[in-house]
Amino acid sequence: MPKKSLFLIDATAFCYRAFYALKALSTSGGQMTNAVYGFINILNKILKEQQPDYLVCCFDLSRVTFRQKKFAQYKMQRPAMPDGLVSQIPLIKEVVAAYGVPIFEKEGFEADDLIAALAKDAAAKSLAVTIVSSDKDILQLVDEHISVFSPYKDSGLLYGAAKVKERFGVAPIQVVDIIALTGDVADNIPGVPGIGDKTAQKLIQEF
Predict the structure, then answer these.
(1) What is the band of 1 on the pLDDT scale with cuts at 50, 70, 90?
(2) Which pTM value belongs to this model?
(3) Closest CA to 113 of 3, 5, 10
C-alpha cells in the first residue's frame, strides 16, 4: 500500500517570488494583487500536478528569530519586506484558508524551521514528505522519507539523496558542512576565507 503524501510549502518564499515576478497587477481601488495571483498559480499547480494527500503552508511571522540572538548579522543585508507585499500577505492567507489548507507560523521561528519540524515528525509517522522550496539549505533534510521539490523550472526539479549528491558532491546530511565552509551570501553567513564549493567538497570527502 503506497504511503500517504504530505507537501510542505515554504509560503513566504513563494510570496516574494510571485511579487517580484509579476508586475502592475492591482484592483481598481489600488490594492496590489500580483503576489496573490502568482501564489495562487503556484498552489494550483501543486494541487493539480502533484495531488498530495495532505498540504501545509508555512509562513514567516517576522524577521526577528532566534538566529539573530546567536549571530546579529544574520540576514542583516536584506531590505525589509516591501509595503506592496506586506499588504498582500493577509489576502494570500485568506486564499490559503479558503482552500482548506492549514497555515503554520510561530513567532521567533522561520518557515524553514517549522517545515523541518513537521517533515521529521511526519516522516516518523511513515508519510512520504515533499518540501516545496528552492532554498538549498533545506536540502540537508533529504532522506529516504523526505524529498525537496523546486517547482520553478519547467516540470520542476525533485531532489532525492542522489540528486543532492550530484549537486553538492556530498550526502544531504553534509550540506550543512558545505555551507559552514563556503558561507551563504543570501543569509549573510561568512565562510572560511578562500574555500569555495569544490574545495569544501574535497575537504569533507577526505576528512
Answers:
(1) low
(2) 0.91
(3) 10
